[in-house]
Design a protein that fits this description.
The chain has 289 residues and is an alpha/beta fold. The protein is 37% helix and 20% strand. Helix 2 runs parallel beside helix 8. About 2% of the residues have low confidence.
Length: 289
């Protein structure tokens, strides 16, 4: 009996030792799954530090001469749109897909999107509900004077610059397109909140409408079945997005190309992913074999 008990404790201790060794081995071999890099930029325009999530394409080597397009993503935090949009870019750049050239994705992590993505409004109720709004001019200056030069200096980039945004992000993109169109040559504007300030952006004049506008600029506008906007005066998201597309289509410049995409089976929460996938087909059409 004593021998049996001794054998039992020997087997038990051996099992515990093996288990501990196995756990130690698992802990030693585990390592982080790295999707990209986290960068930081100190902004004088915004008077704050901003976090950038950067996806670098397969084969990226800072010591080589190859340069890549840059896709700037609004709402680019890890818990917002950075991961799934980077995944779309990676998937569409696989050699057996070859829809999109290998690209760098710059996700701009959000701090206060109502502050950064909106211009001043004349609607008193919106001023009260959203007291930090109205500083898109500072955020646009940050993009133009600080962010784009920072990315161009630190990473291997070419002249192709795309911007992606939804909702208030789409509002900001529309403002950039109409006021400072040279900042980007490809715009993915999804479900833009054009209701802001009672749709005043839709009445704004822009150099992109003129015959002498020279930069080749591709604009993709998408909206789902989204209905009425949160405004005192009723507006419809689908109608506003279509009005923006029609405004741009009226441009006399041969260098402006616009595509309007309606997703009746998607809503404000689900549209971004399929819209971005479709925008790549518009920007990079493939020749049928």
């Amino acid at each position: 009996m004593t021998k049996f008990i001794s054998l039992f404790f020997l087997l038990l201790s051996s099992s515990l030792i093996f288990s501990q060794k196995n756990k130690t081995k698992t802990a030693e071999t585990s390592k982080p799954f790295v999707l990209g890099v986290i960068d930081e930029i100190q902004s004088k325009e915004l008077n704050e530090k901003r976090i950038l999530n950067i996806y670098l394409p397969e084969g990226y080597n800072p010591s080589e001469d190859t340069k890549y397009p840059v896709i700037y993503l609004l709402d680019g935090s890890a818990d917002e749109d950075f991961i799934h949009i980077s995944g779309l870019v990676q998937f569409n750049s696989f050699e057996w897909i070859n829809q999109v050239p290998k690209s760098i994705v710059v996700g701009i992590a959000t701090v206060d999107r109502r502050r950064d993505f909106t211009f001043p409004t004349t609607i008193e109720n919106d001023k009260t509900r959203f007291p930090t709004t109205g500083h898109s001019d500072q955020f646009i200056a940050f993009i133009e004077k600080e962010l784009q030069p920072f990315i161009a200096k630190k990473y291997k980039t070419n002249d192709s610059k795309t911007i992606i945004g939804q909702s208030l992000g789409g509002l900001l993109e529309t403002e950039i397109l109409l006021k400072k169109p040279f900042l980007f040559n490809k715009y993915v504007i999804v479900s833009p909140s054009l209701w802001w300030n009672n749709g005043s952006l839709l009445d704004l004049d822009s150099q992109i409408l003129n015959e002498n506008f020279k930069q080749q600029t591709d604009i993709y506008i998408a909206v789902g079945k989204e209905g009425l906007t949160p405004t005192a005066i009723p507006r419809v998201m689908e109608v506003d997005a279509n009005l923006l597309a029609e405004k741009i289509k009226a441009s006399k410049s041969k260098n402006i190309k616009v595509y309007f995409d309606y997703f009746p089976e998607e809503n404000h929460g689900t549209i971004l992913h399929p819209a971005v996938a479709n925008s790549f087909k518009f920007f990079y059409p493939q020749t049928q074999q």
